[in-house]
## 1
Amino acid sequence: MQWIPIHVLASLVVWLQLPSTVLSQYVIDDSRGVGRQFDGIGGLSGGSATSKLLIGYPQKQRDEILDYLFKPSFGASLQILKVEIGGDAQASDATEASHMHVPWEENYERGYEWWLMKEAKKRNPQIKLYGLPWAFPGWIGNGTQNPYINRELLADYIYRWINGAKVQHNLDIDYIGIWNERYCDTEYLKILRKTLDKKGYYQTSIVASDNWFDPKVTGDTSVVAAFDVLGAHYPGVVSPEVVKQLGKKLWSSEDYSTFNDDVGGGCWARILNQNYESGLMTSTIAWNLIDSFYQGLPWDRTSLMTARQPWSGYYSVESPIWMSAHTTQFTEIGWSYLPHGLGVGALEQGGSYVSLTSPDHKDLTIVIEKMSHDHSPCIRPALPPYTVANENATIQLEGSFAGVTALYVWQSVLRFDSGASSTYFLDMGSVPVINGKVTVAIGVDQVLTLTTVPTGTHGTYDAPPPPAAFPLPFFEDFEKYPLSAEPFSLAPQQGSFDVVNVGGTYGKVMRQMVLQPPIAWCQETLYFNSSLNLLGRFNWTDVEVQVDVKVGQTNGSNGVFIGVRIDNGGCQTYVAKGLFFFIFPNDNIYLLASDIQGKNVLTSGREKVAIVSDWNHLTLTVQGQTVTGSCNNQQLFSMQVPNVNANGFVGLGTDVYGYADFDNFRVDNSSTSKVVGKPDTLYFVEEDMEIVESFKTPN
Ligand SMILES: *[C@@H]1O[C@H](CO)[C@@H](O)[C@H](O)[C@H]1NC(C)=O
Ligand SMILES: *[C@@H]1O[C@H](CO)[C@@H](O)[C@H](O)[C@H]1NC(C)=O
Ligand SMILES: *[C@@H]1O[C@H](CO)[C@@H](O)[C@H](O)[C@H]1NC(C)=O
Ligand SMILES: *[C@@H]1O[C@H](CO)[C@@H](O)[C@H](O)[C@H]1NC(C)=O
Ligand SMILES: *[C@@H]1O[C@H](CO)[C@@H](O)[C@H](O)[C@H]1NC(C)=O
Ligand SMILES: *[C@@H]1O[C@H](CO)[C@@H](O)[C@H](O)[C@H]1NC(C)=O
């Protein structure tokens, strides 16, 4: 007898008998062995700074978000977390801090990737960790843009990151990459392997080359011996025949990057199956894990989920979370795919199926996707045309699975008709398997999981607080951060900013740390040497910004600036327009420009009394087309600026790389009267961190 579920109501399953003639048939059988080992589904934090705002969320919502990403049998239940090894340079949405800004120091407390890796491990001790650099601090290249100029030095720098993870955070780094989407130096690859072995990190596997299936990497046996995984980016579910024969694990080590609506979900569901079915890739990793960067920066919502409002606590669990769950909740790293034709293949009417089994062959998971062409393109590469149609299929279980009597069914239905709403990862109960046979209806734009694993859960928390605009006034004195922290609410676009303690009345301040141009990932960042750290909303109009600033006495920048109505970040930071108020304290000079490079000067002057070489208090106010600037409460300019941007971010930075300190950073709404009274404060408590005050309003 053959049976088919018909979904009459959302949760009601009815089984009807069907004539077998209209059925396609698929055999699931392990008696002729298995296919490749499954290495897990992952998310990529960084590349860059895509998780930036997450750490600043209120603890309750932050824990919920982390559960949706990492908690087993709950949400995406990710099996790999890939992170950026910060290189002090812009890589798409912000810079991430290096563990060695300069060769004479090392620090493993910067940024948020350490924190994120620990939160992931806390939820899933089995999760694998993978580090990859996008950029490097300038000293690695001895002033050039070539990180391989001294390969031993680079290998040592990467080893230190792996060792810092272990020693400071008890994190084992399972995989390490070479240089994201850039030249892979095979001599360096071999030296990195030797260095890690010499230091006892045999267990850390090398992924090459995080770009494409590079013949230079795959064609030389001494190179092939040095790495464990061949990782390609955006392979479009295809890998060349020659690399399939290489005897190495093949991964799609960066993929997805697609807007996270249901088409993004369709993309993700399709490639999770087809990267193996077609390309024999045993892991797929999404860039990016979570959209936790300011709206208005590039690559809006190309993320598994969205959480970019730490001030309100609002977040949104998007469809790719549930597409991940279809595989991750019913498999583990170390399971095996079944052979092609015996559990893996294309569906007769379009779409694909993959089957995986546990090492003891007791458990079986079958994931079926039938994504239509127009509802599942990823951002790249172009998706060749194909057609899909509904089909009823009989699945025949043989080998170790012949005795299975029931399978749990989980279903997602993506609906694109206006007014129809999609359903994600619904628990459809279990279906009987009779004489090894089960029949299922596979609809277009659906994902089905059939599994012996009973622990699937559509994890749910109460709705988060509603979205809200970034609140003003904003005030930050950096006192509550641990040393070396990167302040939660500021998003560095160029340069890197750490909390340091200068003592005295200023106490903890935020210091720009980069002293020379980094080895870039975005080539555009080489067009200028300013640093920039953004805050707030991409469409703030009338604001007043105040900050205390001091350039470093040794290795200092020349000037510092505050800016309003800044319209660009990411790799395009160099063309940012807005209103930028610079001072050059050692020369007592000020300057107002409409571009970050200070080329289009609106006014400038020299004020020996107003501008001092020690701390200066800057105020920049914009209201409509009127801009006013003062230093130490002495007005330097007040003028009309007819062609300025109508709105944008607030920011601060330095004119060139070099140390500069910032404190008591305050943003008010310049069109309303100032708020007075007690600060309205949100506290985020960390077990292993002192109390951190992230978003608060001033006295
Ligand atoms: C770095 O470059 C300078 C010249 O710019 C050279 O004198 C020096 O030897 C180089 N250092 C290393 C370690 O390569
Ligand atoms: C699948 O079976 C159902 C129930 O008999 C039937 O209504 C439907 O038309 C079938 N679909 C296809 C594509 O054959
Ligand atoms: C940036 O600084 C480097 C080294 O200090 C210098 O070689 C380069 O010309 C500078 N770039 C620009 C655009 O000024
Ligand atoms: C600013 O952007 C937010 C978020 O998109 C939007 O809700 C708000 O209306 C915008 N405000 C202005 C003044 O454009
Ligand atoms: C300032 O306040 C006014 C009046 O409440 C409001 O319309 C405007 O959006 C606010 N501007 C900012 C930048 O918050
Ligand atoms: C300034 O930079 C030089 C190298 O250019 C370094 O030797 C020195 O230690 C630095 N001083 C400080 C205070 O960072």
Note: Confidence is low (pLDDT under 50) at residues 1-20, 677-699.
## 2
Amino acid sequence: MSQKIPFVTKEKLEEIVAKYPTPFHLYDETGIRRTARLLYKAFAWNKGFKEYFAVKATPNPYLLQILREEGCGADCSSYTELLMSDAVGFKESEIMFSSNATPAEDFQLARKLNVTINLDDITHIDFLEKVADIPDTVSCRYNPGGHFAIANNIMDNPGDAKYGMTHEQIIEAYKRLLAKGVKHFGMHAFLASNTVTNDYYPELARILFKVAVELKEKTGAHIEFINLSGGIGVAYRPEQQDNDLLAIGEGVRRVYEEILVPAGMGDVKIFTELGRFMLAPNGALVTKAIHQKHTYKEYIGCDACAANLMRPAIYGAYHHITVMGKENAPCDHKYDVTGGLCENSDKFAIDRMLPEIEIGDLLFIHDAGAHGFAMGYNYNGKLRSAEILLQEDGSAKMIRRAETPADYFATFDFSSEYGAKLAEEAAVKMPASK
Ligand SMILES: *Cc1c(COP(=O)(O)O)cnc(C)c1O
């Protein structure tokens, strides 16, 4: 069993907490850069390899900028993600637009910014042409249907997923796009989420590469890139074995040599759209124990709640917790670690064996750097937390302030009945932050 070690010391964290009150999400610049470099190393064999970070996992421009400096692009799926990526400075083909059920305005913005569009459905060809126009380069999202299995283990159920085109449709889509003047093509598929096996990408690559060869033979299309999308997971549990990215890159290389090279497609670029793998372990939710409750169970009440990190509440997801400063103390207390929502599912951990927790202890909730803050919400009038970046030089920088009541009330600003009154309430009654 491996140990999960926080990327920050207790002393450093106390220094940060003195300046920025809990709860907050903390990100590790060193870890983010290390992960990006490892990914580029794993795919160094492929000329033109590019990671398009899935913005939805951690939509913060400061973090996007770090990834940009490491050579990554941005994978967007909405209007606002496009705006953010554009503001950070990603240009044209540095942005992949992998959306579904796409509104007209989103396609229009994608065309205005001239980003690479990845079409989710065959009917989107006509839709895109109607609301904007068809660019020179188009990618199509593929869904093989059925079950996706690795060595008889069913990983996921693409036949049930709303994404992508069927086999027949993607061939037809390429033909139609060729007729409309498209010159360069891409292919994309996302078949399983949060995989912790080195076989996912190679297996996915095998499926996509075979279809790519078929597409080239049947339509004559020039396939410029194949996008393996997201899905490489992280070991949320200490007893799980982490993915070995170098083994994954090597696995994809072998399939590439086996299928694409003999078909005369040795120039195809490999793209990825990883979110979780890039950021999850490089971010944590930091919260303070503010209550102890002894009823039928032992509870620790925190100043963060599911509104800051939703995965445990909605998926029953495991997130490891380190009680700062008690890393070596025996885990001889069984706790439910809860937030303050009026929802019994608002628990970061259930029946978790931890060291004895005292009020004021700082809890470091691991692997919250992707799909963490991003999935936050305002239920119960809870406010979103700040995001803090632990920079390479050891200093902490606020990269998003915490919401205030004024933010929560801001969408009433149209209303003369309540807008002004709520703004005044928020301004007057707001407790001074320490
Ligand atoms: C969510 C998503 C990703 C990222 O998935 P991870 O599991 O975070 O790696 C990539 N591409 C698309 C189209 C997605 O929807």
Note: The pocket of pyridoxal-5'-phosphate is lined by residues 54, 56-57, 75, 98, 190, 193-194, 229-231, 273-277, 370 (CB under 6 Å).
